[in-house]
Structure formats: structure tokens, C-alpha cells
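Write out C-alpha cells for Natural resistance-associated macrophage protein.
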Amino acid sequence: MAQTTRKSRLKNILLILSVIGPGLVTATADNDASGIATYAMVGSMFGYKMLWGLFLITISLAVIQEMAARMGVVTGKGLSDLIRENFGVKMTFFAMVTLLIANFTTTVGEFAGIAASLEIFGVSKYISVPLTAVFVWYIINKGSYRKTEKFFLTLMVIYISYIVSGFLAKPDWKEVFKNTFVPSFSFEPNFVLIFIAMIGTTITPWMQFYLQSSVVDKGVDVKNLKYQRWDVFLGAFWTDFIAFFIVVATAATLYKHGISIETAEDAARALEPFAGKYASGLFAIGLFGASLLGAFILPLSTAYAITEAFGFENGLDKKFREAPAFYGIILFFIVIGAGIILLPNIPLIKLMIVAQEINGILLPIILIYMLKLTNNKEIMGEYVNSKTFNIVAWVTVVFIIILTLILLIQPFLNI
């Protein structure tokens, strides 16, 4: 009996390991250059006061990502495909154009993060960016989905550097845990806007498109849905666990000494006087790893979404000649995204802000599409949302819409 139980547990572990990947990679890739900059600003401007919000966002992220993964497993189709089939070409075209603009500006930000992180170690952007662009294209063009996913999972180890940086910063752990579970809020405009940015950088439209497409590309069977859910939940926890330590590291050092920042590079440089060169170096290494993963995922996400929406062949298991539109979009994003960084006097901060605003406009629309799809029995069969799940999901959607509206009207209120 005991031997049978052990075999059953081993089988379950092996099944989880075979399914794991899409959820973990998608959520982790969301901690990209702009994400790290946002979390660093949260810590440097408001200390530990927003940690409770990050805790709640983790739950929302897990709920939304589970919906995307479930649709991919049950239907065998990507999100763009389902939107086109159920909401028409016009709405699909609008979503794709908006997503294209947002993802492209974010991709430029990833290459900016690569340049900034290696410049801390004395490497010129004119060396780092072209070499990285070639490397990204090589990995995507030469690997199957499973090989590429393994590379992504390996790359995620670099994020551990943020955990180490958090401990090197020697935070007040009593205050950290207090603020994680005891909410505090301020209606000060900067607090509201940074809080919105924290949500916007954690839950983005491209994540839903990429996750669902990668689940389909991996070929996860419906009988393994419960294991795919574990992958999603693990991803949501892991990405915000890393975000937690970014906030802690900057709160314990920069906030404590009244130092403001605008970029993740600023945070990495500013940490050194207070937490030592190792903390600063590890923060920069984390920025490089995060930006590199983002430089892979954003072009891939866009290529999946657009080719699905308009019926072109796609997938990493196909060769360039079999899916020219898919690989063409990826190549365009890599070449132009990297090329822009090599131009002098590029307003990178403004580009990132534009990308986040576009994401903010698109996200509620995409989430409503997802809720309608996951409640359609003709599409999902017995796997539609439960009543309890719908309540949680709709509360999340309404909350994001309210915060997005605040983001949009805030500039007019300040006139």
C-alpha cells in the first residue's frame, strides 16, 4: 500500500514537471525592465507601505492567469483566435493594433534595460545590445518550443539575485511583515499613481496572450489541467515574491535615505553606498536577466497574438519557411527594438510610460473578453467558471477598471 502511494506521488510530481513552464515563464517575464523600475520606485518613494497591495495583486494575477491557461488547455486555441471567432474582426483588429504598439514600446524598454545593466559593469550599449539581439534571434530561430522553454526556465535563476539583495539591505523585518498584511492607503496623487503602476506592471494584456498560446504550443492535455493550474499559481507566487524583495531592498536603503529614482539602473547604482557593491551588482545582474527574458517573451507574445488573430501559421516548432509571418514579426521587434536603443537621446522613460498607459486601456477590455469566453458553455463545456470564481474575477476586473480610469483622468485633474 505504501509503495503504491509513493508511486502515485512520484507520478503526480513527474506530471507537474512535464506541464510546468508556461505559467512560470509568463509571470516571471512580467518582472521586466519597466516592472523592476516600478517596484524600485514603490520601495524608494513609499518604503514598505504598498507591500499589502502586492500581496492582493498576487491573488488577482493567479486568478486571471488561471483563466487564460484553462482556455488554452480546454479549447486548444489561443486568445486571439477565440476573440476573432466570438467578437468579430473589427474588435480583434483594434485589440491587435493596440497590443502591437504597447508591446513594441515595452520591447524597446527591455533592450534599454540590457544596455543600462551592462553599462554598470563598463560594457557599452553599442556592444551589448547588438550581441544580445543576435543571441535572442538565434535561440528563438533554432530551438523547438520545449528547448526554448527550458532556456527560459534556466534564465529565471538569475532572479534569485534580488532575494539576496533584499537580505543584504538589512531591512526591518518586523515592519516588512506588518505592512505586508496590514493595509495602509493614501489619497496623495503620487501614491495613487504609483499604486496603479504597480498593478499595471504586474497584470498586463500580453501575458494573457502569451500564456494561452504557449499552453497550446506545448500541447497540454485537458486531463492535466489541474497540473497546469499549479504551474500558473507557482508563477504568480514566484514573480511577486521577487517583486517583494525588490521593494524591500529599495525601501530599506533608498527610502530610508530619501533618495528618489526613475529607472532600475538608478536603483542599482544607488544601492551601493548603503547595501554594498555586492547588493548593487546583484541588482544590476537581476536587471540584465529580467530584461533578457523580456526581450525574448515580448516579441514572441506579439507574434503569437497577431498570427492567431489573422489565421497565419505560428509556433516555435515550425521553421521560418513554414511560419514566415510569425518569425517575421519576431525579427522586426528584435531588430527595430534593439536599433532604437542605439540612437542617441531616446526618451526611454516616456516610451515606457506610453506603453503602460496603452496597457492600462487595453487590459480591462481583454479581461472582459476572457470572462465572457470562460463563461460560455459552448466554448468551455464543463470547464466554465464557477459562481465563486466569477465573483473573484469580476471584482478584480472592476477594481482594475476603476484604477485605470483614475490613471486616465488624473492629468486633467492636475490642470
